[in-house]
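FORM 12-B: Structure-to-Sequence Request
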């Protein structure tokens, strides 16, 4: 009986092993099903949000009157925009594109904010023409880079803390006597016209209002920068563990200080006090959380020789003594190699890594993605980057309104 039971058990185990050997792969989808289900629910939720409040593409056809005070008018626009409630999961995108020597200013807004945004634009540019258009990037292949197209581009961060301001355009009132104001937009467009690119140059700013967490982080960072200049103690981010450690370290410091001579408090210099006061002026204007990108998409046969240098001149304009833009090394299209990595390993993997970086960068451009890691810019800084040209630039086929068009629509809401 024992022998028969042993043989039976052996046959059962053998059968189970055969079944497992043939059908073991079924276990993987069963395990991963819960993860696929979670991703699918997230996708449906995002799709539902998009369908409820889709993005509308507004093309701004500017007139000659827009050249008079382009930065001041745009700064007023952003100041009005700060008073509009933008939900945490919503974004507004501002783009300048130049393709086949045609300049286009695009404002991409949620449908729920379309009318309000149009009112704000018309309040600053009464002669402007706003046209609802389709997504012009949808004409590009979705899998760039590929055999036909390539992309160059950079995503930027601030070199120092957000409270430090970049170089901004203070005076934009152009008179007949003084028409030589340096304008970064005009510089970039003049260069594009002369080099006659076959591709598309794109400046993209994705912004949203700061949520409560971002406001707290920005305030903490700003206060610590100012406190450091004024010789005040830094404020640490509150947490239970840090509070306990802080209390213990405070007791230890008091015991040490009791046995030693008290340190003389160093007064901040006049220069540091002035610098601290100047930093506070950034918050005189409305602030937004932003992602800032510049891209160039072209057929592979076309040269990129002048692109990086032209964009470099554009970005360099915003460099001030206090802050500047710099490319994010892992958010662009080029691998920045540092450290003691063997050269053979770098050359082996660099091409593939850069290809993946280009694909990821193009998808962020295409989807107008607002990353969690943002830079904080105020209305004055945004207007210095995104504004109409100061004068009629020499782009061969610049699309602009040569005479006054129809008045703004009469059915716009009054705010």
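FORM 12-B RESPONSE
SEQUENCE OUT:
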């Amino acid at each position: 009986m024992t022998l028969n039971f042993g043989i039976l058990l052996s046959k059962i185990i053998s059968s189970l092993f055969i079944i497992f050997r043939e059908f073991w792969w079924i276990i993987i989808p069963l395990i991963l099903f819960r993860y696929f289900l979670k991703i699918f629910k997230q996708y449906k939720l995002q799709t539902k949000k998009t369908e409820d409040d889709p993005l509308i593409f507004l093309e701004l056809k500017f007139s000659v009157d827009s050249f008079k005070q382009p930065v001041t008018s745009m700064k007023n626009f952003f100041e009005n925009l700060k008073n509009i409630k933008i939900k945490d999961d919503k974004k507004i995108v501002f783009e300048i594109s130049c393709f086949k020597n045609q300049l286009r200013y695009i404002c991409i807004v949620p449908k729920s904010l379309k009318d309000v945004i149009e009112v704000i634009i018309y309040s600053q540019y009464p002669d402007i023409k706003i046209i609802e258009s389709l997504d012009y990037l949808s004409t590009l292949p979705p899998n760039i880079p590929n055999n036909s197209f390539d992309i160059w581009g950079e995503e930027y961060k601030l070199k120092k803390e957000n409270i430090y301001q970049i170089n901004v355009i203070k005076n934009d009132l152009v008179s007949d006597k003084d028409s030589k104001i340096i304008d970064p937009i005009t510089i970039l467009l003049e260069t594009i016209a002369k080099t006659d690119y076959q591709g598309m140059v794109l400046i993209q700013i994705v912004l949203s209002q700061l949520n409560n967490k971002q406001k707290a982080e920005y305030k903490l960072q700003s206060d610590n920068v100012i406190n450091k200049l004024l010789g005040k103690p830094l404020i640490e981010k509150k947490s239970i563990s840090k509070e306990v450690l802080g209390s213990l370290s405070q007791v230890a410091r008091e015991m040490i200080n009791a046995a030693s001579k008290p340190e003389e408090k160093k007064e901040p210099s006049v220069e540091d006090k002035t610098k601290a006061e100047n930093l506070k002026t950034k918050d005189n204007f409305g602030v937004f959380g932003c992602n800032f990108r510049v891209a160039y998409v072209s057929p592979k046969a076309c040269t990129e020789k002048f692109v990086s240098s032209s964009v470099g001149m554009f970005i360099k304009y915003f460099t001030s003594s206090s802050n500047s833009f710099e490319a994010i090394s892992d958010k662009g299209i080029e691998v920045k190699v540092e450290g003691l990595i063997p050269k053979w390993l770098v050359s082996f993997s660099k091409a593939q890594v850069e290809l993946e970086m280009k694909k990821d960068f193009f998808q962020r451009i295409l989807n107008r993605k607002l990353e969690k890691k943002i830079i904080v810019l105020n209305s004055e800084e945004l207007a210095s980057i995104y504004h109409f040209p100061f004068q009629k630039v020499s782009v061969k086929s610049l699309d602009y309104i040569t005479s006054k068009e129809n008045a703004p629509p009469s059915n716009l809401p009054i705010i």
